[in-house]
Design a protein that fits this description.
The complex is a heterodimer of chains A (160) and B (227).
Chain A: H1 3-19, E1 21-22, H2 31-44, H3 50-68, H4 70-96, H5 106-110, H6 115-124
Helix pairs in contact in A: 3-4
Chain B: H1 40-50, H2 54-76, H3 79-95, H4 106-124, E1 135-136, H5 144-151, H6 161-174, H7 177-188, H8 193-200, H9 204-221
The chains are: A mainly alpha (160), B mainly alpha (227).
Chain lengths: 160, 227
Amino acid sequence: MSPDKENFELLRRLFALKRHEQPPPGYFNSFSQQVLFRIRAGELGADSAPWENWLTSKLQRLWLAFETKPILAGVFGAGVCALLISGVIYSERMSSAPPVAFAPEPQAAAVPVQMADRSLFESANPSTMGGIPLQSSVSVFDGIPMPQSKLVNWSVPPSN
Amino acid sequence: MPWRLAPETLPMIMTEPVRRKPSKVPEQPAAEVAPAPVPVEEMVLVKRARLGDLSAYDELVRRYQERIYATLYHMTSNHEDANDLAQEAFIKAFQALKSFKGGSSFYTWVYRIAVNKTINFLKQRKNKSQMSLDDLDFNAEHDPDLVALISEKTPRREANLAELQEKLNAAMQKLSEPHRLVVTLHDVQGLSHEEIAKIMDCNIGTVRSRLFYARQQMQAYLSDYLK
């Protein structure tokens, strides 16, 4: 036997490996259905936009990748979960953070107004501050004069 | 520019003359198998499918899906690409059924469409090194050819089947598309030279010379595993 034939014999043995490469189990069960589905989809949606065909093709390819490689589906699921958790954490941080205060407009700040009067002014004209609450200890009720308390000498008349 | 050829008139790339002649063309070991007559039932299914009967076409797809897929998979070494190409080949065949005149079997005709589509795809594919290999079935470890190959006292003894599989696919991807196709159809799928010549629309001599050259190339690429 010549060296060439000998080597081709070894090569022939090696090619046997290719015959053992098999697609995922059950792959051919749905293959023809996918072909028919695409034929029907092509007949129905012949006028569909090219981007729709492109998107459908990509989604089918992604789904096929998930079917054939479970680890890919796991990684994708983990990524979605990580995004969800990070979104929840971010939203909680945002809700617990103190509200951002905006400085009053320069024109308003330039006017010397006493705080009590200013509060009253603001409460009477909320639109002048754009509806943004001021971050201060001054309350809108501070300007309202509190009733003065007086000591009352009250005695119960003696009963008979 | 992608090729858009009518399946019945296939001036395929494989018809181009062989650029590098092998030094020696080996003898044909066995007599060529006579082409099998076209099954009557197949023609009935084709006629029904041509009239829009999708159940008939479903039957035709089921008959040949495994062989078509396998060929495209061995050509691309990529499961997803092979899946896409096989589906598109069957869809295109359905759309072109009216042009199928029955001069060859439906199988050969679909094969031509699939092979043309795959060669066009491979020419346009940017990343040629990307592989997505199918798993080996459990029988691979018990295949006598493979057991003998990896158990001999050679450097390849250290290599496991997965490594061999990867090296083999990488070597095949180095071949030109026509040479890879000949090796796939003959050495992997066991088609006769005559059947391959029909599919590739060339003469048997071209098939033989390409096969010999492709084997020489593969032998060089896999020299570490074939000592």
